[in-house]
Amino acid sequence: MASVTSLSDSVQQHLASALSATRPEAAGADPLLRRSDRADYQANGILALAKKAKANPRELAAEVVARITTGGLIEDVEVSGPGFLNITVGDRAITENLAARYADGERLGVPLKEDAGVTVVDYAQPNVAKEMHVGHLRSAVIGDALRGMLDFTGERTIGRHHIGDWGTQFGMLIQYLFEHPGELAPAEDVDGEQAMSNLNRVYKASRAVFDADEEFKERARKRVVALQSGDKETLELWQQFVDESKVYFYSVFEKLDMEIRDDEIVGESAYNEGMPETARLLEEMGVAVRSEGALVVFFDEIRGKDDQPVPLIVQKADGGFGYAASDLTAIRNRVQDLDATTLLYVVDVRQSLHFRMVFETARRAGWLNDGVTAHNMGYGTVLGADGKPFKTRAGETVRLEDLLDEAVQRAAEVVREKARDLTEDEIQERAAQVGIGAVKYADLSTSPSRDYKFDLDQMVSLNGDTSVYLQYAYARIRSILRKAGEVAPAAHPELELHAAERALGLHLDAFGDTVFEAAAEYAPHKLTAYLYQAASLFTSFYDKCPVLKAETPQQVENRLFLCDVTARTLHRGMALLGIRTPERL
């Protein structure tokens, strides 16, 4: 891999050198470089330095300019405003840097970070024996994108799907199966739709008996005890539910075009044996105390409506364990056994208080320390067109499968309308890629903490900030490259660039910086914004700069080169987000 220094970093280094030469006490100062409408980059760090040195900002800026050598990387630099530096990068530098990225292949010259660690990403948390609904969408899509970006920067990610596979309802389900054997077919004999049909049937039937028969209810409660104590027959029937549910989970994730590894599905049950030890350790350390028979942790800074401390219940008065115990045990496992340096939870923002208390408890116990950080990536709600939580017309929660199927159907209409040389099979294949991509992009282009409206008409639109717009931009570029025939893309640094070429080139050079920023801030919407801008700048370039009909053969090759770098950047960026880019649309 050939690491390429971005133009912004190179300019930053030149400015820092000039600053330290002008004012030795400024060695290592940050020029605070940023993109500007008036120039390629603008540096405003001189203002702070001038204030510290009690100097005139414009005069100091002029001294710095006098020490900057122009004609190579920096073509021109001028003082503006109260002491800003407006910097223009040379055409040759832009083309040469892009050529170096182009030569690096799929990584586009983006380096791997030196201090990479291990991040455990807790996401896509469906519940055993229950259908996945629209509420599961964000956790899965955001978590998958974060893993893509983090992996690309060099971080090693480990997925954890903390599925709901333990608790009271399983006593009800398992007891029903004991009394009605054969209700569930072996998981290997069914597909995803059949698996959920079986689970739904058993769940509804067991719930009906549970609500109507007090004796059955008591037997079901005893079955929970048998489950938690490891009774062999009970565990065998519990495993049937888990296996059948996994068949269904995999069918939904396949529609979402997401890979879910079986060894990364580690549900609440996996921590059952470790929860008593977690409770014992917390009590011995004095982190948790007994209160009315329960083992709890109190927080002076976290209070309820009556201004009383809100406790975190580790163990109930009856000896049972809840979410706090399993989450704390999971932290111990992830830090001590998986060597995690970061724990990232992609969980509904409504659980923020729970995780705030869990993290603080883990810190008090020493399981989270200076070498391990934990972050709750709380996400907002998916809303309907009316601005309320997304529901069916009957007021029920929307099944995730139905939502994805409708997205693919809408996308098929768009693809079919634009298709010229695609067969019906190809249209259906593209429709899946476009429809699922549209759903993912709409989610990812919104800041995770915000709610967003689920509007399929807008999602599959060819206009505006949508994945369809980006996919068509990519397909258009691939079409241009095919039409070029034997004329190969080639960089020509000696050529003067059109303003639209410069704007596109500078933006493409910032791909790596953007991915690192988006990954560090857990902000996939920053990457989607970058990719949309890249597609928009390409459209402007294509409108203003003839490619195959450029004035000279060298210009044709150079513009094909710009096209190909753009295509590679769009393809790689969308792939990091889990979205496909079809070669033809």
From TrEMBL:
EC number(s) stated in the UniProt entry for this protein: 6.1.1.19
Main localization category: cytoplasm
Residues forming coiled coils: none
InterPro entries noted in UniProt: aa-tRNA-synth_I_CS (IPR001412), Arg-tRNA-ligase (IPR001278), Arg-tRNA-synth_N (IPR005148), Arg-tRNA-synth_N_sf (IPR036695), ArgRS_core (IPR035684), DALR_anticod-bd (IPR008909), Rossmann-like_a/b/a_fold (IPR014729), tRNAsynth_Ia_anticodon-bd (IPR009080)
A Pfam entry, by short name: DALR_1
GO MF term (any one): ATP binding
Catalysed reaction equations from the record: tRNA(Arg) + L-arginine + ATP = L-arginyl-tRNA(Arg) + AMP + diphosphate
Record GO cellular component, one term: cytoplasm
Top-level taxon: Bacteria
CDD domains registered for this protein in UniProt: Anticodon_Ia_Arg (cd07956), ArgRS_core (cd00671)
Swiss-Prot/TrEMBL keywords: Aminoacyl-tRNA synthetase, ATP-binding, Cytoplasm, Ligase, Nucleotide-binding, Protein biosynthesis
Localization annotation: Cytoplasm
GO biological process entries: arginyl-tRNA aminoacylation
Motif mapping: 'HIGH' region: 126-136
Assembly behavior: Monomer.
Family in the record: Belongs to the class-I aminoacyl-tRNA synthetase family.
Protein name, per record: Arginine--tRNA ligase
Organism ancestry: Bacteria, Bacillati, Actinomycetota, Actinomycetes, Kitasatosporales
Gene for this chain: argS
